[in-house]
From TrEMBL:
Pfam families: FHA (PF00498)
Species, as recorded: Acinetobacter indicus CIP 110367
Keywords in alphabetical order: Membrane, Transmembrane, Transmembrane helix
UniProt keyword Transmembrane helix, yes or no: yes
Family annotation (InterPro entries): Cell_Proc_Reg/RNA_Proc, FHA_dom, SMAD_FHA_dom_sf
Region (Disordered): 163-209
Nucleus keyword on record: no
Domain of life: Bacteria
Protein name: FHA domain-containing protein
Stretches that traverse the bilayer: 215-234
């Protein structure tokens, strides 16, 4: 299912953006939705598809991401008619169209029983010159009797039958014995699971880069503090 964002401000007013996958919004040229404005961060926000729902997440942008004029700090679901805003750029959320029933296929009202046409055993044929002639349609059992299949009463009286008409005391051939020492587990090996690599989305990559940048910055700050302390001690 494809969601859409329709621009309602700025130079993009009236244009629609189709969202059919996770997308990055920002000023950077590699973003999926590029907004060329100084107030928009290079990597401003992310549009996420979860099942059939659309979510938006702010990526620590300078001027923020808003949903219905409320600034968001975490992943927020979007609904039909919501206004999502990246800095000063506003977009209206359009939900995917739901499938509709065809107009030329009317449905019977609930509780209505569909009348079934009974099968006919007699077919009447008529022509303009001849009177109506009735032709009897034979059942499969009657056709088998005509071909030489005897009825139950004509079969051998010594054969005992069940209620379903099946003969009793009929021997069933046994399967051939399996030779001793045969390893059955080797004949049908168990299938080995095949590892499937999960694709890493661009949003997850951006989160990992931000995390690594934060760790590196903290490391530099700690080293500077330790250098200052060492300088004061040995001064």
């Amino acid at each position: 299912m494809t969601w859409k964002l329709q621009a309602i401000t700025g130079e993009f007013t009236g244009q629609e953006i189709s969202v059919d996958r996770d997308m990055l919004v920002g000023r950077h040229q590699e973003a999926d939705v590029v907004l060329q404005s100084a107030e928009v961060s290079r990597k401003h926000a992310a549009l996420l598809l979860k099942a059939e729902d659309l979510w938006v997440q702010d990526l620590n942008s300078s001027n923020g991401t808003f949903v219905n004029d409320l600034r968001i700090e975490q992943e927020t679901p979007l609904h039909e008619g919501d206004i999502v805003q990246f800095a000063s750029f506003k977009f209206s959320v359009l939900a995917p169209a739901k499938p509709e029933l065809l107009a030329d296929e009317p449905l019977a009202p609930a509780g209505t029983e569909v009348e079934q046409i009974p099968e006919l055993d007699v077919v009447e044929t008529a022509t303009a010159a001849e009177p109506t002639e009735t032709v009897a349609v034979k059942t499969p059992a009657q056709q088998m009797n005509d071909q030489g299949m005897p009825e139950l009463k004509e079969r051998d009286a010594s054969v005992q039958l069940t209620r379903d008409g099946m003969p009793t005391n009929v021997g069933v051939p046994k399967p051939a014995p399996i030779p001793e020492g045969t390893d059955l587990s080797a004949a049908t090996p168990e299938p080995q699971p095949v590892p499937v690599e999960q694709p890493v989305s661009r949003v997850e990559q951006e989160k990992e880069q931000q995390k690594n940048a934060s760790v590196g910055l903290m490391t530099i700050i700690v080293l500077v503090i330790l250098a200052i302390i060492a300088w004061l001690l040995f001064k």
